């Protein structure tokens, strides 16, 4: 029988009010056991024999933050299930979609419940739910880190590796965000400098193009020639030289013949 890998991500805020799903995770209790019991029974009815499962809570976003713009990060849960499937898998996704709709999950079920017949990196997939478990207090970890079919030693090793992977990923995500913020700040400063006191005539595309190139050069940066025409249009929009409708027409002129 083929081995099947199933992963689930559940966010309590994504449940329809009054639904079974909401009752499983109402208030701050987040009853993982109720969901596991119900979901495992359903998987069994589909011909899936679960040999191993693992679940843990995640309380941080991809930047390692628990709070963004004074709003708490929405805690969510990761689950993985491993076992053989003794029936055809062709209708599995359709059945899962029907089940999640019945239980009251919002959004696209395929985004929160996925199954795989093969994995490129099975070991990493197995330990993924443990990626931020090291940030949990002992009481939280004992409550939300649950597993079956693994030994305690296996879980400890998986936690160590997952922690290292998580910290590297968070570090890179922070770097990428800083780069994007720096890029956006550069664009905002350039627009302000070029448009203030009508320093350039935004109605003239050639003038805008030259001004943008000169600004990049003066700041010691290489002009983005591949996207320069788009930046001219954006600058003209900011300078109210063109309307949003004209911007649309400019971007879609090739589709109009």
Descriptive overview:
Helix 8 packs across helix 9 (228-238) and helix 9 packs antiparallel against helix 10 (244-251). The chain contains ten helices and seven strands. It has helices at 20-24, 32-45, 92-103, 109-112, 122-127, 138-144, 152-195, 205-218, 228-238, 244-251, and strands at residues 3-10, 52-58, 67-68, 71-72, 76-84, 113-116, 146-148. It has two domains: 3-173, Replication Protein E1, Chain: A (3-Layer(aba) Sandwich); 200-256, no CATH class. The chain has 257 residues and is an alpha+beta fold. The mean pLDDT is 81.
CATH architecture of the largest domain: 3-Layer(aba) Sandwich
Overall number of structural domains: 2
Strand proportion, as a percent range, falls in 5-15%
Order of helices and strands: EHHEEEEHHEHHEHHHH
Helix content: 40-55%
Derived structural class: alpha+beta
Helix count? 10
- Provide the CATH topology of the largest domain: Replication Protein E1, Chain: A
Number of strands: 7
Strand order of the largest sheet: 6-1-5-2-7
- Round the Cα radius of gyration to an integer and report it: 25 Å
Overall average pLDDT: 81
Spans with pLDDT under 50 lasting ≥5 residues? none
* CATH class identity of the largest domain: Alpha Beta
The best one-word shape is: elongated
State the separation between the terminal residues, measured CA to CA: 55 Å
Largest sheet: 5 strands, antiparallel
């Amino acid at each position: 029988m083929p081995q099947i890998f199933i992963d689930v991500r559940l966010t309590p805020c994504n449940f329809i009010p009054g639904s079974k799903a909401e009752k499983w995770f109402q208030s701050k209790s987040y009853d993982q056991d109720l969901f596991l019991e119900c979901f495992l029974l359903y998987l069994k009815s589909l011909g899936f024999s679960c040999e191993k499962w693992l679940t843990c809570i995640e309380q941080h976003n991809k930047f390692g933050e628990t709070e963004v713009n004074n709003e708490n990060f929405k805690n969510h849960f990761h689950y993985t299930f491993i076992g053989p499937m003794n029936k055809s898998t062709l209708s599995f996704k359709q059945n899962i979609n029907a089940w999640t709709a019945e239980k009251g999950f919002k959004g696209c079920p395929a985004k929160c419940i996925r199954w795989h017949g093969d994995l490129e990196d099975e070991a990493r997939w197995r330990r993924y739910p443990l990626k931020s478990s090291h940030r949990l207090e002992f009481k939280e970890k004992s409550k939300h880190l649950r597993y079956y079919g693994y030994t305690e030693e296996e879980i400890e090793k998986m936690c160590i590796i997952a922690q290292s992977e998580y910290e590297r990923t968070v570090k890179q995500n922070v770097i990428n965000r800083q780069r994007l913020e720096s890029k956006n700040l550069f664009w905002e400063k350039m627009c302000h400098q070029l448009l203030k006191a009508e320093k350039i005539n935004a109605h003239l595309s050639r003038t805008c193009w030259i001004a943008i190139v000169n600004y990049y050069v003066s700041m010691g940066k290489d002009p983005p020639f591949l996207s320069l025409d788009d930046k001219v249009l954006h600058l003209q929009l900011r300078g109210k030289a063109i309307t949003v409708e004209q911007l649309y027409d400019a971007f879609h002129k090739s589709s109009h013949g």
